[in-house]
Design brief:
Blueprint lengths: L6 H12 L10 H6 L4 H25 L8 H23 L1 H7 L10 H9 L6 H31 L1 E2 L2 E2 L14 H25 L1
Antiparallel strand pairs: 1-2
Helix pairs in contact: 1-7, 3-4, 3-6, 3-7, 4-5, 4-6, 6-7, 7-8
């Protein structure tokens, strides 16, 4: 018999690649473009979103049979807002400079359509373990996408990666990569690459 991957592993891989929230579903564009000017900002936002996704999915799955349908969205938002507040305070306590760099986008995780979408479409309809892996997969996929954008923008826009110089001093930074227009340009390049890979995979199949 052919080997079948566990459902939890499938949920994890789904968010990382097949249904990547940024490169495939094109969700969460506001933080993706706003905080991906450096790799560190991108990583911090990605990990914060992953933390909220995993814990909110777990809680929503646990209470799914006790919440009336009429107030489920309100309840989900309250759950999400609780974990966003926790991660906001943690970042503020550990790295005040990073907290200032991310600005209001930490608090805006509450209205990130990826988180509320997974709570409504998956966590509220599945047991805890698949819901946790779904949140982890989507969170890691979101982090991966942010790092792709942030790393490229920081390298080309400043010649550094995580604050460490990686290009020779003679390199002239592309100032546009540090601007909002650079975020759109970089996102377009990554979307083009993922689209080409998808078409190539479908043609091979």
């Amino acid at each position: 018999m052919p080997y079948a991957a566990p459902a939890s592993a499938d949920e994890l891989v789904k968010g990382l690649w097949r249904e990547n929230p940024v490169f495939v579903q094109v969700l969460g564009m506001c933080p993706t473009l706003a905080v991906s000017n450096t790799a560190l900002n991108a990583l911090a936002m990605g990990l914060a979103t992953t933390f909220v996704l995993v814990l909110s999915n777990a809680v929503v799955s646990l209470i799914r049979n006790f919440v009336p349908k009429q107030v489920r969205i309100t309840t989900f938002i309250l759950v999400i807002a609780t974990f966003v507040t926790c991660v906001d305070y943690v970042i503020q306590a550990l790295r005040l400079d990073l907290h200032r760099a991310l600005g209001a986008f930490i608090s805006l995780i509450v209205v990130n359509c990826i988180i509320l979408g997974r709570a409504e479409s998956f966590a509220s309809k599945n047991p805890v373990v698949p819901a946790v892996f779904d949140g982890l997969g989507m969170g890691l996929g979101f982090t991966f996408a942010l790092l792709c954008l942030g790393s490229l923008r920081e390298v080309l826009g400043a010649g550094r990666l995580f604050g460490v110089a990686v290009l020779p001093a003679a390199f002239e930074p592309w100032v546009v990569m540090a601007l909002p227009s650079g975020g759109f340009f970089t996102l377009a390049l990554w979307l083009l690459l993922f689209s080409a890979l998808k078409r190539r995979r479908e043609a091979a199949a």
